[in-house]
Write a structure and sequence with these properties.
Chain B: Residues 4-226 form the ABC transporter domain. The complex is a heterodimer. By secondary structure, chain A is of the alpha+beta class. Chain A has helices at residues 3-12, 20-32, 35-73, 97-102, 144-148, 172-178, 217-224, 242-253, 266-309, 311-319, 324-361, 369-396, 399-404; strands spanning 77-82, 107-115, 121-122, 136-140, 152-155, 167-170, 186-189, 192-200, 212-216, 232-237, 261-264. Chain A has two domains: 18-69 and 272-404, no CATH class; 76-265, no CATH class. In chain A, strands 1, 2, 3, 4, 5, 6, 7, 8, 9, 10 and 11 form an eleven-stranded mixed beta sheet that branches. In chain A, a hairpin with a 2-residue loop joins strand 7 and strand 8 (192-200). In chain A, helix 2 crosses helix 11 (324-361), helix 3 crosses helix 11 (324-361) and helix 9 runs antiparallel to helix 11 (324-361). Chain B has a single domain, classed as Rossmann fold (3-Layer(aba) Sandwich). Chain B is 35% helix and 27% strand. Chain B has a six-stranded mixed beta sheet with strand order 6-7-8-3-9-10, sandwiched between helices. In chain B, strands 2-1-4-5 form a four-stranded antiparallel beta sheet, with helices on one face. Chain B is globular. The chains are: A alpha+beta, B alpha/beta. At the A-B interface, helix 1, helix 2, helix 10, helix 11 and helix 13 of A face helix 2 of B.
Amino acid sequence: MNRGRAKAAPAGDAPARLGPRDALRVGAAGLRARPMRVFLSALGIAIGIAAMIGVVGISTSSRAQLQATLDRLGTNLLTVGPGQDFFGEDAQLPKESVGMVGRMPDVESASATAKLDDAGVYRNDHIPSGESGGISVLAARLDLPKTVGLDVAAGTWLNAGTAKYPAVVLGSAAADRLGVAAPNVQVWLGSQWFTVVGILEPNQLAPELDAAALVGWDAAASHLGFDGHPTTVYTRAREDAVAKVRDLLAATANPQAPTEVQVSRPSDALAAKNATDEAFTGLLLGLGGVALLVGGVGVANTMVISVLERRAEIGLRRSLGATRGQIRLQFLTESQLLAALGGVGGVAIGIVVTAVFAVSQGWPTVVPVWAMAGGVLATLLIGGVAGLYPAIRAARLAPTEALAAP
Amino acid sequence: MTVVELREVTKTYPGGVTALDGVSLSVGEHELVAIVGPSGSGKSTMLHLLGTLDRPSAGTVLVEGTDVSRLPDRRLSALRARRIGFVFQQFHLASGVSALDNVADGLLYGGAPLAQRRRRARRALERVGLGHRLDHRPHQLSGGEKQRVAIARAVIGEPALLLADEPTGALDSASGAGVLDLLRELSGAGTTVVLITHDRDIAALLPRQVRMRDGRIVQDDARVEAAR
């Protein structure tokens, strides 16, 4: 052997790089040797991630459900009601307001109800008056279902004939409270018998109609002393002109006193209700974050113990030529794999939880991709932080000291 | 040609224990050397220094002519990965991992791809007579077989120097003899082997013996021969 070459060869040689695949193999081998411990530590992470994915998934699914509802019901429904006049007295809408609103440009349809404050509806004539169960009696225009988007659950809606006679259509809650399961029974309404001709499906855009008994405009005038002033005008504007119509509605409905008119958009109320849920979602997310943190501490603990137990292995690897950096990389990889295992499991659990909850509520199941990717990324980060100290300790171990371990 | 050389090497541990006291030793190519001495004589420390696992407090360690006392840790690691193989009394095999992959790990830090590592591991196992035990896990192997696997792992990278620390210490005498035969065979094929043992009978079977006591070499056959 040539002495010069022998001298150059070892001194000039830098250590070989440990490729990513080999690093993964080495890290995974460390986990495979202790499956139970790996399962439990990963479970800690999985619970945190599952909690967060579940919270995000459920709130997203609920929002998707709302969106689907709004898509079905439309966001172009506007309602007009009487506000209060200058002296704080309740104002009235003019009798002509429905017609005037209906003739506005960009308005597709307009209809109205009028609350009959003096009338109550009862199961029969033995119920003391006043115990109306919170059911309001409304006079309704015939085109109300078309404008609001009401569906009839049983029986029929009023028609030009029944609108003149003592016939009534009940909202779903009203039917429940009156104990009416099917049409063609009679209820005691405004001191006379009215025949139930139909029962409505619940409607989220017009919840006030759920607990209402609806009678025809003409029947209200002839049997219940109705004065003809509407209390709510429902109108559908063209989708692209909702804001414009909204601005003009007050002046159109009551040109003499536009300030005494209240205009609202029911779909906004639905969206606002959803927004209040988000504060709660934030709180739950925070709790999930705490669970994740505890899981991370569990991983750190597992890794510290692992390094203590595996000193002989560290010594062997150093004797096989592993650099300090490669030992550090091994334990970091192992820690990140452990955490990522929990992360992937947690995402899966979170999806299942979301799906079970959403299906039980009749919602679509939606788990956003950003939440899943974020969950796994977060666990990689946690694994890195949790593994850093154990990995540095493992790398600092002197080879002779490590080999001396039993 | 000298494979490894200690020049006036002293190793003092924190606390004042002097494990090696001005030791000089030179091991040439193809040599098969036994370092023998009672426990506490400094032979393990010497093995660590020969294998660059530790650094001397004073003196020089040369591996293939290179002074390794001042090389940074990364260079020493690379040197161990390519030029030095180790065999330990406790085998240090990864449990639950096949013999083939245990041996293949001997090349892990040398930069060879996995397929090549496994191919060479198969050859190394065949060389130590375990071609029929490739897929066996350590708990399925006898003590002698385990040590053969460990030896295959140590020589898979064809190191210039094989250091064996009490390789027969955990084996019955028959398995121990088999392992010794194997080491002798490897030495005959060109590998330099330094074996540490407290057992004089085993040391007596090897061509060159270095006797140690209290951190000093009390007898070295090579010097005796040189003196003649």
